[in-house]
Amino acid sequence: MRKTATLTISLLSAAVLVTGCGNEKKDDSPAKANEASPSASASTKENGSSSGKKGVPHQVVFEVGGTGASQVMWNGNSNHFDQVTLPWTKTEAMQLEGAELKVGVTVSVVPGSVTGPDGMLKPAPCTIKVDGKQVADNQDGKSPKPCEYKIKD
Questions:
Q1: Distance (Å, rounded) from C-alpha 64 to C-alpha 108?
Q2: % helix / strand / coil in the chain, to the nearest 5?
Q3: Which has the closest alpha carbon to 78: 146, 19, 147, 137?
Q4: How far apart are CA 96 and CA 135, in angstroms?
Q5: Buried-state track 20-37, b at ≥16 Cβ within 10 A, e below 16
C-alpha cells in the first residue's frame, strides 16, 4: 500500500512539473469576465498569428471512474488540479492553431488513488475520448501511468 501511495504521489508530482511547462492557452472560464469576449479574442488570434491557420475543432472528454473523492489533474486547454467527486467527467472544446497543427497538443488526465476491492489504494480508472472515440485509458486503473494522447490535425 505504501508503494502504491508513494508511486501515485510521485506520478502526480512529476505530471504537475511536466505539464506546468506546457501549453499557455487561455482558459475561457466565466471567471475571466474582464478579458476580451471569445469572438473578439478569436478574430485577434486569426489576424495576429503568423500563420492564421486553424485546425478542425475537437471535443475532448476526460473521465475518471470510481466512487468517493479524489484529486484529479488534467491538461487540456489549460492545466487544472482539483479535488473532485467520482465518477467525474470534464468536456473541453479544443482547436489547434499555428505550430500546434504540425506538432500537435498532448492532453492528459492523472487520476488520484481510490480504494480497490482488496482495500488497497490503486490509481482510479481514467479515459480520454476525442471526438467520441476513446483514445487513451489506464486499463481500469491497472496501469500506474496517466492517460494521455497527442491530438494532431
A1: 11
A2: 20, 45, 35
A3: 19
A4: 17
A5: eeeeeeeeeeeeeeeeee
Question: pLDDT digit string (tens) for 19-38?
Answer: 444 444 444 444 433 333 34
CA distances from 113 to 39, 97, 120, 127 (A): 40, 35, 10, 15
Name the one residue in this structure whose C-alpha cell is 488570434: 45
The number of residues making up the chain comes to 153
Overall average pLDDT of the 75-100 stretch: 95
- Cα three-residue angle 152-90-4, rounded to 5 degrees: 90
DSSP for 52-94, written as a single string: --EEEEEEEEEEEEEEEEEEEEEESSSEEEEEEEEEEEEEEEE
Return d(Cα 32, Cα 125) in angstroms, integer: 32
- Contact at 8 Å (CB) between 35 and 84? no
Cell 500506474 maps to which residue?
144
26 contact partners, CB below 8 Å, separation of at least 6 = 32, 35, 41, 77, 78
